[in-house]
Amino acid sequence: MTTPIQQKESLASRSRRRLIRNSAGAALAAFGPHALAQSAWPNRPIRLIVPFPPGGATDIIGRALANRLSTTLTQQVIIENKPGAGGVIGADMVAKSPADGYTLLLGTSSTHSVGPALNPKMPYDATRDFIPVVHVANAPSVLVIGANFPANNVTEFVNLLKRNPGKYNFGSSGIGTYPHLSAEMFKWRAGNLFVVHIPYRGTGLVIPDLITGEIAFLMDSVVSAQTHIKDGKVKPLAVSGAQRSASLPQVPTFTEVGIKGLEISNWFGILAPATTPADLVARVNREFNAALKTPEVVERFFKVGADPAGGTGDQFKDVIRADHESWKALITRAGIKPE
User: Fold this and answer.
1) What is the mean pLDDT of each run of 10 residues along the chain (339 residues)?
2) CA 30: distance to chain centroid?
3) Omega into 42 within 30° of 0, i.e. cis?
4) What SS3 class is residue 246?
5) DSSP secondary structure of 92-119
6) How far apart (Å, rounded) are the C-alpha atoms in residues 139 and 109?
7) Which of 70, 110, 201, 204 has an alpha carbon within 20 to 30 A of 86's alpha carbon?
8) Strand, helix or coil at 322?
């Protein structure tokens, strides 16, 4: 038999339990299922989408970061190459993926600056459909030709192209990509050269045709060109950017050889679907920033000619915006059209 005091204590206990349950329910309703999922992120493998084939600059940078993060996060960061349409296919896939931090894009100037400036009919909106998470690297481009091509420097090469308008081709990783537009800029700045564009699905696929002479030149990233240069398969003639590349110190800049207006570099960065919660974006930003400061990633980037970046998502947003506006102005001025 319970006493009146015991009955009061029992009622008070039930009231407390109801209050706790109601509070928990209210919190879940207020913050949604993301609140529970984010606290445990990551609790399964993360997909890092590289919108170009294996072996290119984006792939090399992505794998260096994925290897490090797989260790620090104790979850696999899996590189998935989704090439096609100059990076558009992979980027569009991420734009339409769940905003849960498990599908991220390693975007480039091609997917979010150059492409949108050249082609207004892309299937995604580079501004509205993504959240810039972190700027991971910058890399200049290098003008490369086949080892047996009959030119040994930029002056000889440009003179050959001028004497034979329309005879030669150049390759790129697709219409509207950074290699395409930087090559168009080279053609314009070198005297409105007439060279035919042949788009591929990635710059790595251009190399065999460059070696055989079917393609005259490629404006490749210093990152992905390194191996082919060291193997003697291609000859580097000049690099973009304001100064020589530390990984190709023997190669002059375009400015040094008398071609101005190519003080440009390609950026690489992590982007997430637009509705990704802010606290999850902040967590991903912290993890990538930490990876970019590790000796193994810094060394890997340095070896391939990429400069680690880092910073906040807002700073990365400013980089994308400024790069887009710059390319849009140059595309308009040069009269470059999508093919």
Assistant:
1) 50 51 46 51 97 93 97 97 94 98 97 91 95 97 96 97 97 91 93 95 92 96 93 96 92 96 94 97 98 96 93 98 91 78
2) 35
3) yes
4) coil
5) HHHHTS-SSSSEEEEEEHIIIIIHHHH-
6) 11
7) 70
8) helix
- Say what the alpha-carbon torsion angle 172, 78, 231, 257 is, to the nearest 10 degrees: 40
Contact between residue 327 and residue 319 where contact means Cβ atoms under 8 Å apart: no
Amino acid 245 reads S
pLDDT of residue 28: 43
In a 10 Å sphere around its CB, with 0-12 CB exposed, 13-18 middle and 19+ buried, how is residue 32 labelled?
A: exposed
CATH 3.40.50.10610 fits 141-239, yes or no: no
Identify the DSSP state of 258.
T
Q: How does DSSP classify residue 129?
A: S
Q: What is the structure's pLDDT at 330? A: 82
Tokens 């071609």, residue located: 259
DSSP code string of 66-100: HHHHHHHSSS-EEEEE---GGGHHHHHHHHTS-SS
- CATH 3.40.190.150 domain locations along the chain: 44-139+266-334
CA–chain centroid gap for 169, Å, is 26
Q: Which two tokens stand for residue 224?
A: 């992905």
Residue range(s) of every CATH 3.40.190.10 domain in the chain: 141-239
The rounded distance, in Å, linking the Cα atoms of 220 and 313 is 27
Beta bridge partners of 272: 131
CATH fold of 44-139+266-334: D-Maltodextrin-Binding Protein; domain 2 (3.40.190)
Instruction: Give which of 48, 133, 138 is closest to 91, Cα–Cα.
Output: 48
Pick from 159, 184, 160: which is nearest to 170 by CA?
Answer: 184
Residue 35 confidence (pLDDT): 45
